[in-house]
Amino acid sequence: MIRLNTLTLQRGPQRLLDGADLTLHAGQKAGLVGANGAGKSTLFALLRGEFGPDGGDCSLPADWRIAHMRQEVNTLERRAVDYVLDGDVHLRRVQRDLAAAEAAHDGTAIARLHVELDSADGYTADARARKLLAGLGFLASQMELPVGDFSGGWRMRLNLAQALMCPSDLLLLDEPTNHLDLDAILWLEDWLKAYPGTLLLISHDRDFLDAVVDHVAHLEQRKLTLYRGGYSAFERTRAERLAQQQQAYEKQQAQRAHMEKYIARFRAQATKARQAQSRIKALERLEELAPAHVDSPFEFGFREADKLSNPLLDLSEGRLGYGERAVLQQVKLQLRPGARLGLLGPNGAGKSTLIKTLAGELAPLGGELRCGENLAIGYFAQHQLDALDPKASPLLHLQRIAPGEREQTLRDFIGGFDFRGERCDEPVLNFSGGEKARLALALIAWQKPNLLLLDEPTNHLDLEMRLALTLALQEFSGAVLVVSHDRHLLKSTTDEFLLVADGRVQSFDGDLDDYARWLVDYRARQVPVNESPAVGDKTDKRAQRQAAAAQRQQLAPLRREAEKLEKELGTVHEALAALETRLGDSALYEAARRDELRERLADQASLKAREADLEERWLVALERLEDLQRQLEEVG
């Protein structure tokens, strides 16, 4: 188990934990929550052994294997699949030792290392790494690319895959969903639910926490409090505790006021002096109960637009994409005041393309886009964080778009986004991603939009800010079109979903649970993003199912062949492992057993030849299967 006993952690002058206690048993899955800067990541570093506690004890089993998601990438030349395999350090060591033993023709070492390789599931490692990459959204062709070819967000996915690849007893994940889309998050949920070890997870995604963890450790006021259940249960339990604390506080204040009144009245009277002194001591001993500060540091709203148009925006027969390449075809979308739309769809299907077109960043390749006379768009996307002036403060950013406004009015407004005091006047150069996102949202909120186009607005935002944004969107009277992997935000702020897939934008008749099931079917069909399927009535859906069944029928023989070869290969691997165990017996190398040794080595050579043949045939079968799948997709 993990046991923290009266733990004190300090970074520079700041004390992050002071006398904190926590016990996590093996196999438990806990979410670690708390304000930004409270010390969550520092606690992870302590558990990884990067430094010791400043006071108290931190203990966990000495033989536990710890895996964590790195935040940096320093091997840009490695193939993506090899980079993920590097996460299994023990496997890589065995493979290196085996290569050296084979080069030295050391039969004893070869036999021993093959046994180790088998116990480390080395024969299935490549397939497992590719399965992890596929679940996180990588195409088969991308798995062969060097790490340096990927953007920062996709490199973080590689780091996550590497952490999942590592066999572990304790898995530490710090914001693993930050760079994932909804599809990958749903896959990761299933993976973590099946993870047999102990999990400690930092996340600002409440639905993700609810799905994965069975406890929540709350870091607040330099203490750790463990709650049973997911994040929703934590919120309910904590709210009840704070309500009780508030009642106790109010009762204490009344008691304190009565004591102070008594002291003030009788302190000067000799006959009452002893009673007054006893009240003073009791007052000093009285436990200091902090008021229940449940208010978020964020309090803001989107300023109401002066005028509205109806419709605000009308796109008909839209052909959308980049250059000459169309991503979406025949898009018809009309946005009216009060519309609340969430965009769903696989990664790369065209959600951001649609939003960029509506925002005016991309011109339609075809069709007509008509904007209302009074249209005022508030557009949020991650690239806008980089467009902020690094030398300007939050206040100066706001003053530039509101030059005639009183400074105090602007300070009050930006304070609702938790830019207060000195932070309001500091340049954004060293701001975190969350602070930059808050500033970008503040600039949008000030400008009185009547249409909000939000592309992943919750990236880098903590739970308190996500809640404040949710409340602000609920009060917003204009139209909202949002892409987000935060399911709580989608469920709380949208009335309708649009599905972006297969080159089309269409209404999605269902909720997020229905979408999760749709995704499973979509992945099974392996429909390419740019395909144009028949949609709409029952006949079209039946045709889709029939086409999918026909594809499966064509693929079945090749898939059976690949599975048969893989099974035979597994049998050969088992026979080789058993044989090499026998070859590891030092007595076999005695002179009296020379003939037996010769037979065993001949058997080994035969099995290795059989193994090489099966591996080659299996890879060819897989390649043929992939080629046929690709051909079917192109024809479809």
Automatic annotation (TrEMBL):
Record carries keyword Cell membrane: no
Coiled coil: 548-582
UniProt GO molecular function: ATP binding; ATP hydrolysis activity
Domain ABC transporter stretches: 2-246, 310-527
Keywords: ATP-binding, Coiled coil, Nucleotide-binding, Repeat
SUPFAM superfamilies, alphabetized: P-loop containing nucleoside triphosphate hydrolases
UniProt cross-references to CDD domains, sorted A to Z: ABCF_EF-3
Matches recorded under PANTHER family: ATP-BINDING CASSETTE SUB-FAMILY F MEMBER 1 (PTHR19211:SF14), ATP-BINDING TRANSPORT PROTEIN-RELATED (PTHR19211)
Protein family according to the UniProt entry: Belongs to the ABC transporter superfamily. ABCF family. YheS subfamily.
Listed name of the protein: Probable ATP-binding protein YheS
